[in-house]
Amino acid sequence: MRVFKSEWQPTQADFDLFAKISGDDNPIHVDPDFSARTLFGRTVSHGMLIYSKLWGLMRQKIPDARQKSQTLMFPAPCFAGDVIQLLISETSHNNFDVMAIRQSNGETVLTGKMELK
Predict the structure, then answer these.
(1) Residue 89: CA atoms inside 13 Å, Cβ hemisphere, count?
(2) What pTM was estimated for this model as a whole?
């Protein structure tokens, strides 16, 4: 079975650009002053930004990959400056587990499954 790994360190600029592209400009992602007053205390990544990094890793390793389905959960926030380990593990033909893990404490910020066509 194949395993693909990569590291990513998101920035506030990444959050801002993803907000512009996706239209999701929720202040929890793009407004540091607003976010400072929340439970998180700072801006957090869009969940789909994290997944887009995993999808990019998949396409880097399997350039002709086409997604059939995905299921995702975001059990912990991902902050700008976190070093994130991106991990894709093949479980069976065209089926993969995906994870994004904060390196500093091992906390999972994304977990899910991906099925390819």
Answers:
(1) 8
(2) 0.95
